[in-house]
Amino acid sequence: MLSTGSMPAHVSTFQLLGAPVLLAVTVWIVCLGRVLRRRRFEDTVRRHGPLLGALPRQRQARPDLESVELTPAERDAFAGLVRQFGDRRC
């Protein structure tokens, strides 16, 4: 009967160490790839500036309100449109 702490007789030491070593190498390669990819991205940003540098800067404040004086004829035409659209039910 085998105890829980004993090593099977038909498995060599190299076979027992293979899976943990393979897992450690895989994790190391994945981590190294992520570090190199991040470094390459940061170098690109540092070298070329912001990625969307061609777009104009956006204003922080809202634009000024504009108004136009309407002539009496334009006011009457607008009132007619409001009445016309106001009669329609959705």
Q: What would you note in describing this structure?
A:
With 90 residues, this protein is mainly α. It contains 2 helices and no strands. It has helices at 13-48, 72-86. The longest helix has 36 residues, at 13-48. It is elongated. The model has no long low-confidence stretch (mean pLDDT 80).
Task: Please compute the radius of gyration using only Cα atoms.
Answer: 37 Å
Sheet/helix structural class: mainly alpha
**Count of distinct strands:** 0
Shape: elongated
Low-confidence regions: none
Which range does the strand content fall in? Answer: under 5%
User: What is the residue-averaged pLDDT?
Assistant: 80
- The end-to-end distance, rounded to whole angstroms, is 84 Å
Describe the largest sheet: none
So how many helices?
2
Order of helices and strands: HH
The percent of residues in helical segments reads 55-70%
Short description, anyone?
The chain is mostly helical. It has helices spanning 13-48, 72-86. Helix content is 57%, strand content 0%.
Which properties best describe this structure?
single chain, 90 residues, mainly alpha
What is the fold's blueprint, element by element?
Layout: H1 13-48, H2 72-86
